[in-house]
Amino acid sequence: MVAQTRVLVVEDEPHLRELVCLHLGLEGYACEAVGDGQAALARAEAERFDLMVLDVMLPGLDGLSLCRAVRNGRLNRDVPILVLTARREEADKVVGLESGADDYLTKPFGVRELVARARALLRRPRAAAKEAAAAGAVDALPPVTVHDIEIDPARRRVRVQGREVELTDQEFRLLHLLATHAGIVFSREALLSKIWREDTFVTVRSVDTLVKRLRRRIEADPAAPRYLLTVWGVGYKFADV
Ligand code: CA
User: Fold this and answer.
1) What spacing in Å lies between the alpha carbon of 99 and ligand 1's midpoint?
2) Which pTM was predicted?
3) What pLDDT score does 174 carry?
4) Whole-angstrom distance, CA of residue 79 vs CA of residue 101
5) Is 190 helix (H, G, I), strand (E, B) or coil?
6) What is the Å distance from ligand 1's center to 39 Cα?
7) Cα end-to-end distance, the chain, whole Å
8) Cis peptide before 108 (omega within 30 of 0)
9) 78 CA to centre of ligand 1 in angstroms
10) What is the DSSP string of 28-95?
11) Confidence band (pLDDT; 50, 70, 90) for 95?
């Protein structure tokens, strides 16, 4: 199961806002709509989105400043941004180097064009995900849902069947590693090297202890786990999807 694509739509004209949300919604994207720049920035600072569609002329904070603020922020600095504008010249400026928008549509635009641009932007690999994969870090990776466990690395948040659970950093990294490789068996040695990268004062026993602790947090019955399974004589795996 893959988490739904989340789009933040920022447009002060109600009809246009509804139109954009309707058509992106028909594509299967979950749209959140706001009508001014300040509200949009607050949302972009609170949560990670997969795409932002924003109008240039906005009350509160204009689209150009909003773009820049998002690019300088933490959670959405690499979010694809599609700008809506009334004037072509304006668009060239916004998509230019300065603000960091990725693409634009000039009003009035057709909904098919909107959907096509959105799709194209969503297909691009995001910089943070690439960097993170290269560095082995998980906190810039997108949220994932495996079985009924939602894992949001950017916010270090885990929900099991909708219920939030608190995890330590190690528990979190173990869960993320196993859940994003559901069905794949990891030996204790492999987990040891991946979870305790620098720490040399650990043994394979530490892995067992960590697994036990994680089970207590996420399993309804830690003695009969549904998610975090033991593969006897080999190691551990997350239940196949
Ligand atoms: Ca406007």
Assistant:
1) 18
2) 0.54
3) 94
4) 9
5) helix
6) 14
7) 8
8) yes
9) 24
10) T-EEEEESSHHHHHHHHHHS--SEEEEESS-SSS-HHHHHHHHHHSSSSTT--EEEEES-HHHHHHHH
11) low
